[in-house]
Amino acid sequence: MTHPVLRGRASACLLAALLTLSGCGEQAPQALGTLEYDRITVPAPAAEPITAIAVREGERVAAGARLLTLERTRGDAQLDAARAEVAGRREALEELRNGARSEDIDQARASLAATQAQARDARAYLARLQPLGARQLVAAAELDRARAAAGSADAQVAAARAALAELDNGARPEQVAQARAALEAAQARLQAQAETTDRLDLVAPRAGRVDSLPYRLGDEAPVGAPLAVLLVGDAPYARVYVPEPLRAGVEVGDRATVRVGAGGERRYAGRVRMIRSEPTFTPYYALTGKDAARLSYLAEVQLEGDGVAELPAGLPLRVEFAE
After folding, report:
1. Which interval of the chain is the signal sequence (predicted)?
2. What are the phi and psi torsion angles at 38 (to 5°)?
3. Counting C-beta atoms within 10 Å of the first and last residue's C-beta, which end of the chain has fewer, N or C?
4. pLDDT tens digits for range 76-122
5. Nearest residue to 87 via CA among 72, 101, 79
């Protein structure tokens, strides 16, 4: 026979369990995750030391605000070299377009006259030797030298005449086109170098909050390394992992309730802005109960309402999707 005290205790436990079950309704479908902002990075345009840092981590900045400054000595020198190359290419093109100077043409004409005089003298000397050679009064070798000298003088006359014609006719159209192309290439290099040099003063591409400054004053980061990380956007979003049983009922544009914090004491309205079609394994913080062995789908829920812009990134949250 059961003792009356034991029967009383069993009845009390059963009554408490029934009350607990009656008070717990079915929970809405939910997914776990963290609060995030859109992140953008400002990469290093060149491997130069950091000479100035104008902001602090956590500070709000406007679009175009200066963040950091890199050493400009090498960049300014390269920019000056690019400008000098453009100037040289431009002058070379103008020289081809303007043609030869009058002094160069006069010098070519004088050279032609001198070679013509030498050619006349060589031909006259050959003419005097030919009768003597026919009577064998001079050596055959002497006659051959005179004949070679006359031919060389005629060739020099032809070369001087061609040089004068080249100066008179000016540069060929192909040479002008090549010089123009070389100038355009130099201008393009100058523009690229000017852009690179201007980017040594790093500015915020969008308004936001400085989340991270990985490097310190004097550091020399490699090209492409993130010198600053900004959190941008008017409002944060919830990055959650939707369990596989809920995936079929969640679509872009669906309404949701976002509970921020470990206890979910702060509630905000939200709307699904993205959900992946390919699943990923459940992350460690979502391994609860039967969900531990299930696949999940990465989703983003945009928070709406007053005060959401002041929420810090990284807070834990859970999202309840409307039925």
Report:
1. 1-27
2. -65, 135
3. N
4. 999 999 999 999 999 999 888 887 777 887 788 888 888 888 888 88
5. 79
Q: Is 261 helix (H, G, I), strand (E, B) or coil?
A: coil
Q: Does the pLDDT at position 125 exceed 70?
A: yes
Give the start-to-end residue ranges of the domains of the chain.
30-67+212-321, 82-192
Tokens of 283: 């992350």
> Residue 224: which residues within 8 A CB-CB, separation 6 or more?
43, 44
The CA R_g of the chain, rounded to the nearest whole Å, is: 44
The DSSP element (H or E) to which 40 belongs, if any, is: strand 30-43
> Is this structure's pTM higher than 0.85?
no
The secondary structure of 111-144, three-state, reads HHHHHHHHHHHHHHHHHHHHHHHHCCCCCHHHHH
Q: Which superfamily, per CATH, for 30-67+212-321?
A: Efflux pump adaptor protein, beta barrel domain (2.40.30.170)
Choice between 143 and 320, residue whose per-residue pLDDT is larger = 320
